[in-house]
Design goal:
InterPro entries: ATPase_E_C, ATPase_V1_Esu
GO molecular function: ATP binding; proton-transporting ATP synthase activity, rotational mechanism; proton-transporting ATPase activity, rotational mechanism
Keywords: ATP synthesis, Hydrogen ion transport, Ion transport, Transport
Function: Produces ATP from ADP in the presence of a proton gradient across the membrane.
Number of helices: 8
Protein name: V-type proton ATPase subunit E
Shape: elongated
Number of strands: 4
Helix content: 55-70%
Strand order of the largest sheet: 2-1-3-4
Strand content: 5-15%
Number of domains: 2
Order of helices and strands: HHHHEHHEEEHH
Structural class: alpha+beta
Length: 198
Amino acid sequence: MTGFEKIIKAIEGEAKLKADQIISEAKEEAEKIIASAKEEAEKKCSEIAEKPAYEVKAILDRANSGAALIKRQTILNAKQQAINDVIEKAKLKLTGLPDKDYFDIIIKLVKKHAHNQAGTIKFSGKDLKRLPENFDKILNEAVKEIENASLSISKESAPIDSGFILVYGDIEENCSFEALFGYAKEELQDKVNTFLFG
């Protein structure tokens, strides 16, 4: 199992526990809301008792429907929060990887996003300072299977926190982790949702 896979497993374990806790708290909150609504309904029972039976039934039906809606919304909000927490944790784990693991991931991403022409790759100031020795050679070895592809490392830092930006003339491809997670947000949310609640 690679370091990246271990990190994913750790995130999954933490996420499952966190999601269970959030859902449990949301259900408790929803039950409190329902109990409060029932208590309020009982207080108004004397007023309601004077109304015809069909009106009483309509009032109770609305109260139950409203309470059920609040419960569903509370649980849905808790699930969304759990999903967002997992995705944010994954981003933080990636940016906090040891240099070797971090730049192994960078190489995989470069292979996936490199164009078949000469270009420049820009890193954050932090990443520029910790580039592995001979990383330019490692990069070009990684893209050699792509016809005409080559990359030079820019000495100018990019305004990103992690990942990189590929520059081909006037075209820039933002491969920062923030951007990549943003592009894949829906797909990631679906996968995390399936894992946590599926």
